[in-house]
Amino acid sequence: MEFTALEIASILEGKIVGQSDIKVSKLSKIEEGTPGSISFLSNLKYEQHLYETEASVVIVSEGFTPEKEINPTLIYVADAHKAFVKLLEYHSQMRNQKSGIEPNTQIHDSAKIGENVYVGGFTYISENVKIGNNVIIYPNCYIGEGVSVGDGSIIYSGVQLCSETQIGANCTIHSNTVIGADGFGFSPKADGSFEKVPQIGNVIIEDNVEIGASCTIDRATLGSTIIRKGVKLDNQIQIAHNVEIKENTVIASQTGIAGSTKIGRNCIIGGQVGIVGHLKIGDFVQIQAQSGVNYDVPNGAKLYGSPSMDAVDFRKSYVHFRNFPAIVKRLDEIEKEIKQQTIKD
């Protein structure tokens, strides 16, 4: 896709200083700018790159004045970073403007496909599936029996939506994620072996959820595993059966959440966090990376460590953790002095 500086300024409601007809076809970092690319400068720490970049167009914030001669055309906007994010969103929308059914797809006769839908090659859509309007399903996806996908959602290649999974509107699910596989349910037998407990529930993903690549969200044993509106999940996250994650919570990579735990709204959970099953995590909770949580957590708590504890207490304690060998040495010396004094007495 190729745009002139004037067209981009129109999209961003900006003002041009330089060549309005210069054309760009790609986005770049300012330090990696090449002819035909557009970049931005929002942090003045990187201002020096503006005088060296080969980018054709650079977005800057209102009030910025170059200290040296520059080559790029400038587009002045209220906030350069926000404007560039808007441009990224526009670029993504343009890239995902696809429609039609590619060859080598298999769609069951009972499936209901909305308007302006794209289905990539080698995708399989099972019986009684409902696909909304403006949905994009990239190649090599599996859409199981009874699955529904809401309007405007994007399903990237390699995703598997197992039977009865419900995906809301404007969701994004990245490659190789599996939603609705069996939960980890096994019952011990008298001989020490384990018997599988049938997993007959489903997964419900509400509107405006984004799920990263290679995540797994298990179906419920009974009822539903639920991801509420606005939740954002990073790559490689495991969510077990009957978990519920409430609105606008964000979770970083490699976190694992065990069965039947309920996580509140607007929580921030760092990478590699482990949360045991059947817990209740409150609203607005922050859990630092690599923490292990094994107890219920009240609203607004900030946790750190494994097992996790209050973040402020952890940081205070960490000072002592680092000095622990010296503390033990001092205690040993004090103990020796006490013993010697006792002998003298």
Automatic annotation (TrEMBL):
Signal peptide: none annotated. Residues 101-182 form the Mannose-1-phosphate guanyltransferase C-terminal domain. GO terms for cellular component: membrane. It catalyses: a UDP-3-O-[(3R)-3-hydroxyacyl]-alpha-D-glucosamine + a (3R)-hydroxyacyl-[ACP] = a UDP-2-N,3-O-bis[(3R)-3-hydroxyacyl]-alpha-D-glucosamine + holo-[ACP] + H(+). CDD domains: LbH_LpxD. One of its GO terms (molecular function) is N-acyltransferase activity. GO terms for biological process: lipid A biosynthetic process. Its EC number is 2.3.1.191. The active site is at 241 (proton acceptor). Keywords: Acyltransferase, Lipid A biosynthesis, Lipid biosynthesis, Lipid metabolism, Repeat, Transferase. PROSITE patterns: HEXAPEP_TRANSFERASES. Coiled coil: none annotated. Residues 21-89 form the UDP-3-O-[3-hydroxymyristoyl] glucosamine N-acyltransferase non-repeat region domain. Pathway: Bacterial outer membrane biogenesis; LPS lipid A biosynthesis. It is an enzyme of class 2 (transferase). The keyword Transferase applies. Catalyzes the N-acylation of UDP-3-O-acylglucosamine using 3-hydroxyacyl-ACP as the acyl donor. Is involved in the biosynthesis of lipid A, a phosphorylated glycolipid that anchors the lipopolysaccharide to the outer membrane of the cell. Homotrimer. Belongs to the transferase hexapeptide repeat family. LpxD subfamily. This is UDP-3-O-acylglucosamine N-acyltransferase. The gene is lpxD.
